[in-house]
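Our consortium's second objective concerns turning raw sequence data into structural hypotheses that experimental partners can test. To show how far this objective has progressed, the report includes one record in full. It was chosen at random from the queue rather than selected for favorable results. The single chain below, 108 residues long, was entered without modification.
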Amino acid sequence: MTMSEKVRKRYEARAKVAKAMAHPSRLLMLDLLQKQEMCVSELTNEVGADQSTVSKHLAVLKDVGLVDVRKEGALSYYRVTCGCLDGFFSCMETVLKSDVELRRATLK
């Protein structure tokens, strides 16, 4: 594999993670799971979607390695696998705030 192929694969992998995060419900679930482990029924209540939809979202997040699952009897408890999401979310908020301020300045 050439260097450019390795680089392309790396960017494809990054895009897959970004795509997995590109849904409001998944972002909410990641935010909740940063704070504590939660089972599907708890997430269903918080997200306001049906259990099958929440389970599908969790499968997408698990597929890219953002969450992991722990079985306890009939229940499955999900948790975030990385500690860097706070920084990512802070960065997103900074971008959003800067964009709002830029738009306000442009309207004046």
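The partners drew two points from this record. The first strand starts at residue 38 and ends at 39. Residues 53 and 87 are 27 Å apart (CA to CA). Both points have been shared with the crystallography group to help prioritize constructs.
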